[in-house]
Amino acid sequence: MKYTKKIQPTWLQVLLKALMFGTAIVLSQIATAADTATKPVENHQDLVQASKQDLNQDQAQAQAQTIDGVVAIVNDSTILNSELDQAVAQAVTQLQRQNQPIPKANELYAQVLEQMINRQVQLDFIKRQGLTVDEDRLTGVLTGIAKQNGSSSLADFQQRLDKQQPGGYQALRQKVVEDLSIQLLQQQQVARLVRISEKDVDKFLQSPEGEKLKQSQYRPFHIRVPYGNKDGENVSERQKQEALQVANRLINALQNETSNTTASLENLMQKAQQGYKLQLQGADVGYRSANELPTNIANDIINLKVGEVSKPLFTEQGIDVIKLIDKTDNIKHIIDQYQTRHILISPSENLSEAMAKQQIEALYQQLQQGADFATLASTYSSDTGSAGNSGSLGWVSEGDMVAPFEAMMKQTAAGDFSTPFQSQFGWHILKVDAKRKQDVSKTYLRNMAKEALYQLFAPQTLEEWMQELKAQSYIKIIND
């Protein structure tokens, strides 16, 4: 599953990032994480110790003597040896699940410790800045984790966790809060520091990388069913048949799945596994030009129509299944636009939800009786910005409006008005004055170039900011 990338991180960087932001957490890992500081590493200690053969016996003995000692001081916080061992054990588990080789102990320990230090430095900065996580987003992430672990609700998931390990849910919740806070902080810092000028865009579009933007882009969801042995060698016919059964289940499920969100496809992938002993590997790999696709399956992807699912694709490592989520032709980009106006009645301290609904229904009755939409919008709409222009929102493109508004706008005929509907802003009635196809190829191409430049500059910018933040912090590593 090798896709060409402009910036190719090492497998360990990918792993460490996954450990920081991953939400696909199995129950056994959550229970272990909830008891990090008090429970010794049992399941992976022998494996981790075996990878230390390159360290001399004196170092290993010193580490054993300081199992609960401090290995690093970060500002006002400490990182304990037991915490480091726990993080390394989780890294080893993740590597095993991904069929990756386990590196030398000194390399693994050093990089995991650096990631723990980076995490603490950022959490300290977040505390000083007073950054908070949106409660709805937090609930959404936790609900997603609950569903991935087979719970019918978040309350059921909490009960299961706390039964398995007292305080397990609270430990998980705190971990997710920290992860989301760090993610928000990094997004803010990169957005603040990365500056892209129109000249930068012009120069990029003239480069070989810029030329690639003008090619067709394919967005595959790529799933691999690995064979029953980890190395992919000497695969028996029985192992191939077992993998093929899983692949066929996947194909049937993908063909019947109308939602192409990453979450729904990942959930479908987990259901299709049904006890298969090796972990399925799958991801939405984003938009790729033809020459960025894996050479052995590029033609299979290119020949798919949007929404189609491939046949089982046999490789040396396993059976691949592809669903083409989307395809774009960046040379020509035509979008639907709607000339729209609306009336909004928003609940307030003086207007209850029920009263707002009654008022919008009364206005709808007036429209049915022939009242002028523009006049009603100017007189009654809570949206003062558009009310002053007879409710006009101008030409609206897909993605400009909130989901309920966009859905109603698309199904309303030109010259007609909608039935009342609700969004987070209140109760609406909209009118579509006209519809058109608009060529926005130039604007779209320049926006794609800006996004490509942003993705190009962001990693280095984030690394430089991280080094600056660490330079402003007190960090001391305690060597045994």
UniProtKB/TrEMBL annotation:
InterPro entries the record matches: OMP_Chaperone_SurA (IPR050280), PPIase_dom_sf (IPR046357), PPIase_PpiC (IPR000297), PPIase_SurA (IPR023034), SurA_N (IPR015391), Trigger_fact/SurA_dom_sf (IPR027304)
Keywords of the record: Chaperone, Coiled coil, Isomerase, Periplasm, Repeat, Rotamase, Signal
What does the record give as EC number?
5.2.1.8
Please give the organism: Moraxella macacae 0408225
Keyword Nucleotidyltransferase assigned to the entry: answer is: no
Point out the coiled-coil segments of this chain. 237-271
Which residue numbers delimit the PpiC domain?
A: 215-326, 335-434
Q: State one Pfam family annotation.
A: SurA_N
Name of the protein in its database record = Chaperone SurA
Q: What does this protein do?
A: Chaperone involved in the correct folding and assembly of outer membrane proteins. Recognizes specific patterns of aromatic residues and the orientation of their side chains, which are found more frequently in integral outer membrane proteins. May act in both early periplasmic and late outer membrane-associated steps of protein maturation.
- PROSITE patterns assigned: PPIC_PPIASE_2 (PS50198)
Write down the superkingdom of origin: Bacteria
Q: What is known of its domains?
A: The PPIase activity resides only in the second parvulin domain. The N-terminal region and the C-terminal tail are necessary and sufficient for the chaperone activity of SurA. The PPIase activity is dispensable for SurA to function as a chaperone. The N-terminal region and the C-terminal tail are also required for porin recognition.
List the transmembrane segments: none
Which example biological process does GO assign this protein?
Answer: Gram-negative-bacterium-type cell outer membrane assembly
First and last residue of the signal peptide: 1-33
Q: Where in the cell is it found?
A: Periplasm
According to the UniProt entry, its GO molecular function terms are: peptide binding; peptidyl-prolyl cis-trans isomerase activity; unfolded protein binding
Q: Which reaction does it catalyse?
A: [protein]-peptidylproline (omega=180) = [protein]-peptidylproline (omega=0)
Q: Name one GO cellular component term.
A: outer membrane-bounded periplasmic space
